[in-house]
Amino acid sequence: MISLVLNSYVKGNAVETLIIIYFLIQLSVSMIQKPCNKCRGGKGVYKRPYSGETLCRDCFLSSIEYKTRKTISKHSMLQHNDRVAVAVSGGKDSLSLLYVLKNIFETSRRTPPVAITIDEGIKYYRDESLEIVNRFCANLGVENKIVSYKELFGHDMDNAILERPTNNMVSSCSICGTFRRRAIDIAAEEVGANVVATGHNLDDQIQTFMINMISGDVTRIGWTSPQSVGSEFHTQRKIKPFCEIYEQELVFYALLRGIPFQTEHCPYMNESIRTQIREFINTLERERPGIKYNFYNSVSKISNNLNAFSHHIDSKKCATCGRIATSRICSVCKTLNILEGNRNNAE
Ligand code: SF4
Ligand code: ZN
């Protein structure tokens, strides 16, 4: 039951989400009375549909933290002297990741992580999340570096949506994703990080794989690998320590830990096919628990093989901005040309 509620959270409606949070709390305390399968002493608060186990609060929290450590070590994501920047958006995944990494690094005496936040310039939506991130980082004692699309590219998302050509519609998420990857690189350079950790979870990995399959973008399929070698945009190593954890479990983790997160969704999110893919995969998982894991394993194998191939692709320097690119002009400059061209035509 609790997993059903968590599953519906990811459909993306803020009012629905608040109702769900209320039900979650009710369910957590009253409906699952079974003992924890792990410690045998605690009262169960979460039942894992794909494994059948019931976990108490402490065992559930430990299971997520243990899985994160295991993923980091399995994929050799970190070396001892790494300076890690965590890209945070104000959502449950990235703030939970910052929290978990800060604790892991403390116990292993590593340099603390630093947060980097990208301000896309989406009125109300991003303003709220920036506030959440600032407060969370201050409470955690973590430095937070904010960079904005406006200062880096001269456009914020709200303007880019108005300026994009209407005849050759570029989706909001495609503009935003291109800018975000570059903005994260720049912010990470500015804080001296050689590794960027993102909160991508198992569901994100599967969805991204399907989007790239549908759009025929074979190179990007390789980027979904946990051992990602990066892309034309990336100058730092990219890691995804939550890539083997279900999204619904991260929602529950953040709720149990009392991590504040933004429940409002981006006003432009429905332009992307991601929402439909997410609902499709969640329906399959409800009917066949564990199917996401099988899917994820296949995605990892395919993307790892593609990455092995992409090592042989020569990188160039963008003729406009001089950053690493796979073609003469990088994607950021191409996107800017589209926006500027359109703006000039309109003037
Ligand atoms: Fe950007 Fe799309 Fe995410 Fe909105 S939903 S923040 S436009 S990538
Ligand atoms: Zn460029």
Protein described:
The structure is a single chain. The protein is globular. The protein starts with a helix and ends with a helix. It has 14 helices and nine strands. The strands form three sheets. The protein has a five-stranded parallel sheet with strand order 5-4-3-6-7, with helices on both faces. Strands 1-2 form a two-stranded antiparallel ribbon. Strands 8-9 form a two-stranded antiparallel sheet. It has 347 residues and is of the alpha/beta class. The chain is 54% helix and 10% strand. Bound molecules: iron/sulfur cluster (SF4) and zinc ion. Iron/sulfur cluster is lined by residues 120, 157, 172-173, 176-177, 266, 268-269, 272.
Question: Structural class per helix/strand content?
Answer: alpha/beta
Choose one word for the global shape.
Answer: globular
The termini sit apart by 56 Å
Ligands bound, unique: iron/sulfur cluster, zinc ion
| Low-pLDDT stretches | none
**Major β-sheet profile:** 5 strands, parallel
Return Rg in Å. 20 Å
Number of strands: 9
Order of helices and strands: HHEEHEHEHEHHHEHHEHHHEEH
Portion in helices? 40-55%
Percent of residues in beta strands: 5-15%
Mean pLDDT: 86
Number of helices: 14
Spatially, the strands of the biggest sheet line up as 5-4-3-6-7
